[in-house]
Amino acid sequence: MVQTLCCPDSSARLDCYPASSERILPAVVICPGGGYSWLSPRESWPVAEMFRQNGFHAFVLRYTVENPPLGLRPLRDLSWAVKEVRESSGEPYVDPHRIAVCGFSAGGHLAASLGVFWNNKDIFPDASLWERHRPNALILGYPVISSGPFAHRESFERLFQAKEKQSLFSLEKQVSDNVPPTFLWHTVQDGDVPVQNSMLFFNALVEHHIPCELHLFPKGVHGLSLATPEVEEPEKGRFADPHVASWSSLCVEWMHQTFIQL
Question: Which InterPro entries does this UniProt record tie to the protein (predicted)?
Fold first, then answer.
């Protein structure tokens, strides 16, 4: 049975998919995509189950997407979720030093936003929160990143009306030496969120010497999720692809290597 935690300050909730172990294990907080207008089921529980089967406690965040402009509400929801997972005193037993945030599409933008803004005093003025909600790693699948020429414009318009605010959340401009290690993957044929989004973020990470790994797959439309038969959507051209599906095993391997070094 899925356990659910509700945010006291918003409509957000956190669904928990614990690994079948009583040992202290790393955790992954998953942010589904949906252009900041809805939350994709295909990027929710199937992804959580994949991580759970690989020895991670998985959590799916149902962040705020209603009543735009959303502003900072989704980011505050994710801040709450990571802090809640880290400070949990009961089951499942989470390693507080090994918590990754995983996001797809607009959910990737949300995950990356916490990765770059976790210690931003203008967004999070309470410095006592910073280490409590800081992700230890980021996993970004075909993420929305840039508000520039390669933008998924609808996502930014759902967040902010003002162009200067949209520019502030063009995350390739916000990378610093404090961003957590990051795993990215994208398909070159993505027609909704251009592959340049991942490339711009990756280049910024490299410039700041952040440990990072990027996988670009030559074929595939946007929103493939796990790219396995269980998440196929033939009517939208989303078919299982074993090559693209390899991102999950690559990611799990990367997480184990990354968390060993923490």
Answer: AB_hydrolase_fold, BD-FAE-like_dom, GDXG_lipolytic_enzyme
Q: CA 119, 12, 96 angle in degrees (round to 5)? A: 50
Summarised one tens digit per residue, pLDDT across range 29-44 is: 999 999 999 999 999 9
C-alpha to C-alpha distance for 104 and 140, rounded to whole angstroms: 6
pLDDT digits (tens, 9 = 90+) for 216-228: 999 999 999 999 9
Q: What's the CA gap between 256 and 259, in Å, rounded?
A: 5
User: How many degrees, rounded to 5, is the angle at CA 192 between CA 65 and CA 109?
Assistant: 45
pLDDT exceeds cutoff 80 at 90: no
Q: What SS3 state is found at 187?
A: strand
Domain harbouring 15, CATH code? 3.40.50.1820
pLDDT score at 73: 98
- Are 3 and 16 within 8 A, CB to CB? yes
| CA–CA dist 62, 27 (Å, integer) | 17
- How much is the pTM? 0.97
DSSP 180: P
What residue numbers bound the domain in which 248 lies?
A: 3-260
Q: Tell me the residue ranges of DSSP E strands in 201-256.
A: 212-217
Cβ neighbours of 193 (radius 10 Å): 28
Query: Largest alpha-carbon pair distance within the chain?
Result: 48
What is the Rg, in whole angstroms, of the alpha carbon atoms belonging to the chain? Answer: 17
How far is residue 31's CA from residue 178's CA, in Å, rounded to a whole number? 21
| Buried b / exposed e along 45-57 (16+ C-beta atoms within 10 A) | bebbebbbebebb
Give the count of domains, the chain: 1
